[in-house]
Amino acid sequence: MLVINNLSKTFRGGIHAVQNLSFEVNDRRICGILGPNGAGKTTTIRMILNIIQPDAGSITLNNHPIAEESKNVLGYLPEERGLYKKSTIENTLLYFASLKQVPPAASRKMIEPWLERFNLGGMGKRKVEELSKGNQQKIQFIAAVIHNPDLLILDEPFSGLDPLNQILFKEVVMDLRKQGKAIIFCTHQLESAETICDDILLINKGQAVLNGSLESIKQKFTRNTLLVEFEGDGTFIHQLPIVERAIIEHGKAEIELHQGVSTNMLIQELIPNLQIVNLQKSAPSLLSIFTSVVGAENLSSDFLSQTQKELK
Predict the structure, then answer these.
(1) Same-domain check for residues 107 and 46
(2) I need a surface site. Which of 5, 105, 182, 227 has the fewest CB within 10 A?
């Protein structure tokens, strides 16, 4: 179990990267740390990894303060991948395991089962450079978990993967959760977080704006929200007086109505302008919750573009 208490970090020039941040990552739970670039996610992860030291606050893992020796129970998949391209897959994994004090005899026994899990069985003698980008990412993931860490930190683990490999990675992550791992999942992709995370920490400008279980957060922000599938141009939905907020993409719209507005009132506005394919009540998405808390104007254009959504 990871416990962060009142963590703060300020850099030169008075930049408050992290401000009084507190949260927990429990065993058998996946905690999504989300937010735009510059929110403080990377600084927080570096402090957990003991790469940089906080100015204030504490970090404990399994009731012990994070220290140099903690690296042997931490697993980290960085966003910027880095492998030894001329090395064989087997030697690469042996090397990463040795950095975590795993004896060669023990790590050799684990390599082939992990390769088979990622559909790479029997390929240990091949060089890393012979693999596709997606398969290299599998090796990087194995390197992060081969020492059987208690806490696993995954930074954009699905970036660049095709849909089938995304499913495979998600299955492996869920299996690790079942084994009792505490897992941190850092991403810009809020939709991915919704499918895999138990808990959510939304950070903006170095501060936690939301922190809790995904279920409780959605319950808290459940309002008069509808999910509409349609044919036609739905951009006008943003301008409807009865609409509080709308997220529109590829013939789908998540629409939050003003208090007191009925579903029938919305239908009457939509029917003259487009064909409704499906309409149902919907729990709010993480993106709509995040924008309602911090405001779309406070989110970076990079964050919004990566969600590939159109916001009101």
Answers:
(1) yes
(2) 105
